[in-house]
Amino acid sequence: MTRRADGVDLKLHRWELVASHPVKGTEAQALAVAEDAALHYMPAVLARHARSGDTPARSAFLTSDGAWLVRLKQDHRECHMRVTAARLIHTQEERKAPPKTFKEKVRHALDGPEPSEPPWAPQS
Question: What pTM value is reported for the model?
Fold first, then answer.
C-alpha cells in the first residue's frame, strides 16, 4: 500500500508466506535450495508478462540471519521476495466441531451464542 507523509509517497509492504518448498535432507541442503530459489526463481507476476528468453534484472542480498532479499525488475514491472530456510516445527490439521443438533440450533436462536471454551481449557 502507498501512504503519503510530508509530501513523499511511501510504499509499505507486508510479507506473507505465499509458497513453501519442503526439503528432505540436511540444513546445508535446505540452504542450497533457498540460494537457488533466490538466484533463479521467476515470480508469476513477471513470468506471465515475459517473452521466451527474457531475463529480469536481479539484485539478491543475503542477510546476516541467512535470509535472501531479492529485487527483480523487468521492463516497467518490479517485485521483491524474501527467501528463508526454516525448520517446520509444528503443524495441526483443521478440525471441525460436530454439527449442532436441532435442539442446540433452537437454543442458539432463542438465547444467543454460548461462550466458547478455549481449546486448552480442561475437558469435563
Answer: 0.64
Most confident listed range (78-82, 104-108, 116-120): 78-82
* Most distant CA atoms of the chain, gap in Å: 66
Alpha carbon distance 104, 110 (integer Å): 10
Choose among 51, 55, 44: nearest CA to 81: 44
